[in-house]
Write a structure and sequence with these properties.
globular, about 20% strand, 8-stranded mixed beta sheet, about 325 residues, 3-stranded mixed beta sheet
């Protein structure tokens, strides 16, 4: 069973609060390289590990992770809306195998996803319907969060689940590295915001536009050094994380605490849980080698922005 991986950051501020053109050109080149990697691999199935940002999953029922047998994108921040081409049979098979391994994954036949899923699919595949997909939600925002070791074990279980499939499978992981955007926290939220965190489905167009404007304005202020409530990006932490992934020594993440993530790299750095799951899935099929790594801190996007590709060790040597 051929497998491959692409992991990349996402940002709702791409195209809305961009850095200087030279940085855009650099990112576009790295994305083009990743697209070529995916195109050349030509997967039969794409398993997407991604978070949600209180667009599809809320505190009325907040699982640590969930596998979708059907999914719809809300189309926030200009991303593509509508139904994903979910392979429900593959999703069901993966879910059953993951549960049998001892990992308690939730199930959704009506998963709602946002730009965390849609943006990387559009950037790499051209569309949210380009390939049969299995969406796997990993809670990276709604506290309290479970131990990082469980994310690695989830990824490992998914990798074992697909190892018997006679298909080419791409693991796609989507999430930021260090970043601390103005995402509300239920412990400190005002009553009206708390109500939206518990059940904020189906906002009006005006409500969604106002929410997106707040994020865009925060990005502009952060890039200008004026939004001091947001934690600074941490390129050293980001590079150490990327080095760990390249080493293949994924069990080291088991000792990382939830609070340590926040202290080092901001509340939303927990989105790297998607990367951990993706790399653990790849590792479950055998030793791997990182083919390419791109990294740059981009304050305008409130993102330690990275793109990596990886394949089984027998397929390629590392090139950075």
């Amino acid at each position: 069973m051929p497998v491959a991986l692409c992991a990349l950051s996402h940002s709702p501020l791409m195209g809305r609060n961009d850095p200087e053109q030279s940085v855009i050109t650099e990112v576009d080149s790295a994305l083009a390289h990743a697209r070529s990697f995916v195109t050349d691999f030509d997967p039969d199935l794409v398993i997407v590990f991604a978070p949600d940002h209180y667009n599809g999953v809320f505190y009325d029922m907040l699982p640590p992770f969930c596998i979708g047998r059907a999914a719809t994108s809300v189309g926030d921040y200009g991303t593509q809306g509508g139904s994903l081409d979910v392979d429900s049979a593959a999703a069901d098979a993966i879910l059953r195998s993951v549960l049998a391994s001892g990992i308690d994954a939730a199930l959704s036949d009506r998963m709602v996803v946002d730009h965390g899923f849609a943006q990387p699919m559009q950037l790499l595949l051209g569309s949210i319907t380009a390939k049969p997909t299995v969406p796997i939600f990993i809670n990276s925002v709604g506290e309290p969060l479970g131990p990082v070791s469980r994310i690695r074990l989830l990824g490992n279980a998914v990798g074992h689940a697909v190892s018997g499939m006679d298909r080419k499978v791409l693991f796609l992981a989507s999430g930021g590295l260090s970043h601390d955007p103005p995402v509300p926290r239920i412990e400190t939220a005002e009553a009206d915001v708390k109500a939206r965190l518990i059940d904020g489905r189906n906002p009006t167009p005006a409500e969604r536009a106002a929410r997106e404007d707040r994020v865009i304005n925060a990005g502009r202020a952060f890039a200008a050094g004026a939004f001091t409530e947001m934690q600074a990006l941490n390129p050293d932490w980001d590079r150490q994380f990327l080095d760990l992934l390249a080493s293949g020594d994924l069990e080291r993440v088991d000792g990382w605490s939830v609070d340590w993530f926040v202290e080092q790299a901001g509340h939303s750095s927990h989105e790297v849980r998607t990367w951990i799951a993706g790399y653990a899935a790849l590792a479950a099929t055998g030793p791997y080698a990182v083919r390419s790594t791109y990294y740059r801190p981009i304050p305008e996007w409130i993102a330690g922005f990275a793109i990596t590709t990886a394949v089984p060790a027998t397929s390629s040597s590392q090139e950075n």
